[in-house]
Design brief:
The structure holds 2 protein chains of 2 kinds. By secondary structure, chain A is mainly α. Chain A folds into 2 domains: about 70 residues, no CATH class; about 220 residues, MetI-like fold. Chain A contains 14 helices and no strands. The longest helix of chain A has about 40 residues. Chain A is globular and about 80 Å long. Chain B folds into 2 domains: about 50 residues, no CATH class; about 240 residues, Orthogonal Bundle (MetI-like fold). Classes of the chains: A mainly alpha, B mainly alpha. The interface between A and B is large, with 98 and 101 residues.
């Protein structure tokens, strides 16, 4: 009994040191992750004047973490210099459109891949997988030329339209969405289809009333993926959107021009722009993560 | 009537095939059309465009633009020329960028995945928080980093001055430093993804392996070296390969942090080609560069599909 507590205490010390080290390590990780966000939030409450006066070389004048003069002007005037709220609406329309169209097309294609062994199936899978890997810049120029040609030849305006952007992003989202939904449908036993078929249900009916409810987690993941893809895309948006359809991802950059850098407003706008994605993430984290992981592991 | 007799089974077979398999084609049709329109037609057309002289005036009637043979390729790829030198430099830049960010992202991701692998109170919150950089929109995250790297009002210079590491503010976003600033921001944004994938991989390793290794007296490093690393090899292979392929996509961080023209030290193929097409309106040369980039990525994609195949076979 006399030895027991002493021994236990020695072990305890090592555990305590280990615990402290562990907590410290986790704190460092969290600090690295969070510092840019804190800087963004702090910047969004500073006045333009305060930021212009700041200078890292002059002691006492350094930019501060806590705004010297707390102001809400950046939020109040957020739509004034750059029409970021209008861009926000554009992004909502384009991302939601991509989500609806992309998920539907992917579901149909995944259904075919999961339930039929049709000639050309493997070639199709390979082509889907490889498109996902090709950098967007490869087809941006010819795609732009195609848009120009369609407008001049057939009067079909696709550049700077919601339709054009939704078509573009749908196609970007398809490869991953198809692969992901296919693996979900594959996990649903064929007997369910056969049973429904005996009961006289059509193919579409089977898909939408038998398989769809069972594949809901996969569909939610894919829908989120499509939405976020449309929300975040920069390259094609920088060329194919115009004044009428500018999305937040490129609109945000307008705060910094050759003449003026409106950092404080840009930080306020950044917070607004991140909101939808952060809200989706905090409520549907499970689906987001399952989408991310299977996207990486399965390609 | 022999002709009819032999035709009927063939017809019947065709009919049966149509009824049985036909719907499959109908179901993939919309997706195929969308991808044809956005990916395959432009890519095929791009190869034609690369051999024509297409500028702002000829772009609307691109099919009537004069053929110029290999002139676009010569202009875009000749290392002695201005553009060619920029192009090869941009390929080198993106490769260097990828080597650093992928390696750093993997190491940090692995360290954090291991750190968070044992249960502790608040673990799921921490796991959620570390994913923030990954899910934050690129243009937001890199705009904030651009703000942080400002010379006079930036956080980086403020801290470096405070700790006496530098005496004068460093210009981060112009010139030779810029690619390192972008690398740092990209590592910050990219490592959580590696951590997430490796976390998922760690969960598939059976606990018994570690338990029996501990009975045999294996040190933590030995357990990592001989159990964790080999068991994570398939996940690692996919992760690195996908990252290498995606790396040639690198555009957002350069465009957001450095603008349309990041300068020779930080130009990547995407920014260079974009400028060549939509600032200089030299669509032909831009497309010629794209075709070369396409060859590089297709080669890498073939490797990727090979590995994917062998991984699937290994699983089955």
């Amino acid at each position: 009994m006399a030895v027991g507590p002493a021994k236990r205490r020695r072990v305890d010390w090592r555990t305590v040191a280990g615990r402290i080290g562990f907590v410290l390590a986790v704190t460092v990780v969290l600090a690295v992750v969070l510092v840019p966000y804190l800087w963004m939030v702090s910047g969004s409450f500073k006045s333009t004047v305060e930021l212009q006066a700041a200078d890292v070389t002059r002691p006492g004048q350094e930019p501060s973490w806590i705004p010297r003069q707390f102001t809400l002007d950046n939020y109040r005037n957020v739509n004034r210099t750059v029409r970021i709220l209008d861009y926000f609406v554009n992004s909502l329309i384009i991302s939601t459109g991509t989500m609806v169209v992309g998920t539907t097309l992917a579901l149909l294609a995944a259904y075919a891949l999961s339930r039929w062994a049709f000639p050309g199936r493997n070639a199709y899978i390979v082509s889907v997988l490889s498109t996902q890997m090709l950098p967007g810049i490869l087809f941006l120029i010819p795609y732009f030329i195609l848009f120009t040609w369609l407008r001049n030849q057939f009067g079909l305006q696709l550049r700077d339209t919601y339709t054009g952007m939704i078509i573009t992003y749908t196609s970007f989202a398809l490869p991953f969405s198809i692969v992901m939904l296919r693996s979900f449908l594959d996990s649903i036993p064929m007997e369910l289809d056969e049973q429904a078929q005996i009961d006289g249900a059509s193919r579409l009916r089977i898909l939408f009333s038998v398989l769809l409810p069972l594949a809901r987690p996969g569909i939610v993941s894919v829908a989120i993926y499509c939405f976020i893809m449309g929300w975040n895309e920069v390259l094609f948006a920088s060329v194919l959107t115009g004044t009428g359809t500018r999305t937040v991802a490129v609109g945000l950059l307008e705060y910094i021009t050759a003449q003026e850098s409106r950092w404080t407003m840009m930080m306020a706008a950044s917070i607004i722009v991140s909101m939808p994605v952060l809200v989706i993430f905090s409520f549907l984290q499970r689906y987001v993560i399952s989408g991310l992981v299977s996207g990486a592991v399965k390609g | 009537m022999p002709p009819e007799g032999s035709a009927r089974p063939a017809l019947q077979r065709a009919r049966r095939f149509l009824i049985r398999t036909g719907p499959a084609y109908l179901f993939i049709l919309p997706a195929v059309v969308a991808m044809l329109f956005v990916h395959y037609l432009p890519m095929a057309g791009g190869i034609l465009v690369a051999f024509r002289d297409i500028n702002l005036f000829t772009v609307t009637r691109w099919y009537e633009a004069p053929w110029v043979g290999l002139a676009n390729f010569v202009q875009g790829l000749d290392p002695a020329g201005f553009l060619g030198a920029r192009f090869w430099r941009s390929l080198w830049n993106v490769t260097l960028f990828g080597a650093v960010t992928i390696a750093a992202g993997y190491v940090i991701g692995m360290a954090v995945a291991l750190l968070l692998n044992r249960p502790f109170p608040g673990r799921s919150l921490v796991r959620g928080l570390i994913l923030l950089p990954y899910i934050t929109p690129d243009s937001v995250a890199y705009s904030v980093w651009r703000f942080i790297f400002q010379a006079r009002i930036g956080l980086v210079n403020m801290w470096l001055m405070k700790f006496g590491i530098i005496d004068e503010p460093v210009i981060w976003l112009v010139g030779s430093n810029s690619i390192y600033a972008v690398m740092l921001a990209s590592v910050w944004k990219g490592w959580p993804f590696a951590a997430l994938v490796l976390q998922a991989g760690l969960q598939t390793i059976p606990r018994e392996l570690y338990e029996s290794a501990m009975i045999d007296g294996a040190s933590p490093w030995q357990r990592f070296r001989h159990i964790t690393l080999p068991m994570l090899a398939p996940v690692t292979r996919m992760l690195i390969l996908v990252s290498i392929l995606w790396n040639y996509n690198a555009f957002n961080q350069f465009y957001v942090m450095l603008g349309r023209d990041p300068g020779p030290a930080a130009d990547v193929p995407s920014t260079l080609i974009l400028r060549e097409a939509f600032s200089t309106f030299n669509f032909g040369v831009g497309t010629a560069m794209s075709v070369v980039l396409m060859a590089v990525t297709l080669l890498l994609t073939v490797v990727y599909l090979r590995v994917l195949r062998s991984a699937e076979r290994g699983q089955a």
